[in-house]
Design goal:
Distance between the termini: 30 Å
Strand order of the largest sheet: 4-3-2-1-5-6-7
Structural class: alpha/beta
Strand content: 15-25%
Helix content: 40-55%
Number of helices: 10
Mean pLDDT: 94
Radius of gyration: 19 Å
Length: 240
């Protein structure tokens, strides 16, 4: 397994799964942003063969730490992500990095016949047609890791799109559920960051407060499951 975004919450959770199944899973590559201390700890603990970081400064700090001695340094930025994702010993690439920088890495992994475990919705929102066509052409599976889409994947497993009537995504409604449009004129960023159900990063928390995140998830569901937009519904479900 290669993990893009290994120092984030999803990456750390994935490493906990690896640790629970050492007879079945092995870390080959790790890529992180700027969190040198955490990546250094992960390198010592899991012994990857190749690692990458977002910037040259971060790579220099990692080298000075001594934790990466004997480990291949893949480089920085998108090139580093691509090198980790396409390493010949990798079977599965978990894309848990934020933003869109990992698009080239995901496409490279597909071209090298790696299974893609996708926890990054931006990739499919930005380039869903390109990514899914590449996966179809190479016969590569794209496995959704994000909670709702993973649940749908499990429900649909082994069934054809022709059997699908509709998909229902749930939304908590965020911190402003039930407020009128006029009530929203004076809300603050601080209030928007107080999600009633989940503790998440700042960007996704704001996107959740505006419900923009659910719009992105509808697009993601369209590409993952081949469902037409009029077959994807959103249900406000504050109990989550």
């Amino acid at each position: 397994i290669a993990i893009l975004g290994s120092t984030g919450s999803i990456g750390q959770s994935a490493l906990a799964v690896v640790e629970a199944h050492p007879d079945r899973l092995q870390v080959v590559g790790l890529a992180a942003g700027e969190n040198v201390d955490r990546l250094a700890e992960q390198i010592v603990r899991y012994g990857p063969r190749i690692v990458a970081m977002a910037s040259g400064e971060a790579v220099d700090r990692l080298a000075r730490s001594g934790a990466a001695a004997g480990t291949t340094m893949a480089g920085t930025g998108r090139a580093g992500l691509t090198a980790v994702a396409s390493h010949p010993d990798v079977d599965l690439v978990l894309c848990a990095s934020s933003g869109t920088d990992a698009l080239e890495a995901v496409l490279a992994a597909i071209e090298h016949d790696k299974t893609i475990a996708l926890a990054n919705k931006e990739i499919l929102v930005m380039a869903g047609g390109i990514v899914t066509e590449a996966a179809r052409r190479r016969g590569v599976a794209i496995l959704p890791v994000d909670s709702e889409h993973n649940a749908i994947h499990q429900c649909l497993h082994g069934r054809s799109v022709a059997e699908l009537k509709r998909l229902v995504l749930t939304a908590s409604g965020g911190p402003f559920r039930g407020r009128s449009a006029s009530d929203l004129d004076g809300v603050s960023a601080e209030a928007a960051l107080k999600h009633p159900t989940w503790r998440m990063g700042r960007k996704i928390t704001i996107d959740s407060a505006t419900l923009m995140n659910k719009g992105l998830e509808v697009i993601e569901a369209h590409w993952l499951f081949g469902a037409a937009p009029d077959r994807i519904e959103v249900l406000i479900h504050p109990q989550s």
